[in-house]
Amino acid sequence: MTPEEWWKNFALGIEIDVAGTFIHNGIKTLHELSSLNHSEDSFEVLYNLSVGIERLLKVAIILIEHRDYIDIKQTRKIV
């Protein structure tokens, strides 16, 4: 297994698992609330959901934007 195959399969899989846990905790907390009158309860729900969605989007961006071929000379010209 190449290093690229490893991080695409396992490292990003771990990231998706963590993102799912955050989203699950946010939805579970939202379900258990009787009302959203207290800001600390709202914060916990919104924080967990936002972190989970952010992590999922990060994985999606990495998978969409990753290129197999990287031209070092072109990269150095950009920087």
What pattern of helices and strands is seen along the backbone? HHH
Strand residue content: under 5%
Kindly provide the radius of gyration, computed on alpha-carbon positions and rounded to a whole number of angstroms: 18 Å
Give me the count of strands.
0
Shape: elongated
Uncertain runs are none
Mean pLDDT: 84
List the total number of helices: 3
What separation lies between the terminal Cα atoms?
32 Å
Provide the number of structural domains. Answer: 1
Quaternary state, please? single chain
What is the makeup of the main sheet? none
Helix content: over 70%
Query: SS-based structural class?
Result: mainly alpha
Q: What order do the helices and strands come in, and which of them pair?
A:
Blueprint (H helix, E strand, L loop, with lengths): L2 H30 L6 H27 L6 H7 L1
Helix pairs in contact: 1-2
Task: Give keywords.
79 residues, mainly alpha, 3 helices, 0% strand, elongated
Walk me through the structure.
The protein is elongated and about 55 Å long. It is mainly alpha-helical. Helix content is 81%, strand content 0%. The model has no long low-confidence stretch (mean pLDDT 84). It contains three helices and no strands. The chain has helices spanning 3-32, 39-65, 72-78. The chain has one domain. It starts with a helix and ends with a helix.
In short:
The chain is mostly helical and 79 residues long. It is elongated, with a radius of gyration of 18 Å. The two termini are 32 Å apart.
